[in-house]
Predict the 3D structure of the following.
Amino acid sequence: MPVTEPARTRPPTIDARTYAEILQFYARHFQLLDEGRAEEWADQFTEDGEFAQNVKPEPRRGRSAIAASMRRGMDSIAERGLVRRHWYGAVTAEPAGEDAVRTRYYATVFETPRGGGEARVYLSTTAEDVLERHGDGWFVRRRHVAHDGT
Amino acid sequence: MPVTEPARTRPPTIDARTYAEILQFYARHFQLLDEGRAEEWADQFTEDGEFAQNVKPEPRRGRSAIAASMRRGMDSIAERGLVRRHWYGAVTAEPAGEDAVRTRYYATVFETPRGGGEARVYLSTTAEDVLERHGDGWFVRRRHVAHDGT
Amino acid sequence: MPVTEPARTRPPTIDARTYAEILQFYARHFQLLDEGRAEEWADQFTEDGEFAQNVKPEPRRGRSAIAASMRRGMDSIAERGLVRRHWYGAVTAEPAGEDAVRTRYYATVFETPRGGGEARVYLSTTAEDVLERHGDGWFVRRRHVAHDGT
């Protein structure tokens, strides 16, 4: 069956091995976040990594600043008795030079109050990362998170 | 440890390379949908593709009809000030002849009102696709979406 | 660009082929669960498999006990006119001896009432499995599910 393939339907993709590495990278990354391990989570950024959100005036720059900021956020959430789960999904990925990948994905946060309350959707976002491979691991060089509806 | 394996627990699966291609295909597909790019989204169907839903009397047939119908839906959603995110998950896949794959997956839609409202679950569905590979890309030959609870 | 990689950022991961198998295993596993096929779902445990939850005093032990318990739960849900979808996500995986893998993942349940009601988040959990490969299939040797907020 002949099919006219519009050129625009042929996006760059990445190989299965890299894609599996990246899915596992994000799996660990968001589990660390939700376990309150801010420092280990921030270690998954490069030393000079950047973390920006469309709801904040300034990006956080550098692993230490990113860790400190997330630590404050996590402590506040824990004090309020909330458990959050950051889900990532719909990960597109394309090569961005050697040993680097540009991704875009959905990140949706679910929240459950401790003590028997109901789970609910807390927030829906999209995120764009530049990931770099150093040695046998992946690191976030740059992240931009956009909250839906803002 | 000997284990009696019931024959029914051995489903057909697809190789890692094809599975990674298909996950990336869906990632791009649903991102296009949620960005309001109805025509590019419809280009991911074959020319003679079919899109059916259990809540509609008739399937849409052909890339142009599918694009036109989705364009109307997207414009209506945008007019109402809503941002939707179509998540796909739990993708099973089995070979369906050469260069074709039959998939079944969950598709859940989250919705956030523009202007600061809360995100919520809008809809939970399951979907069944026949995907075909043409050249270096994948296309939807046939899709059937079933809304939960109907 | 030199990067100091903290040793703790190098987690064990598994190869792309095994990861794709496991994602497909879970996809089928949770689809069976949500289709009310308790026996086929339980067949994906080893004969001597174990299923524990932090909200139950005792784990279920053995495929038959697991199937019988799930059958009762499913029938109760169906009687109440509910459709549930178990999503899995953020799957980390590491080798656990030959032909075995230890996973941790998020499992979130969405619920839709039959007859036109709205979908909602029912429950957010994390799960830890030991999976074993026997022949060409994967099986759950041990699962522990922890409900968020309890």
Notes: The longest strand of chain A covers residues 120-134. The domain at 16-147 of chain A is CATH 3.10.450.50 (Nuclear Transport Factor 2; Chain: A,).
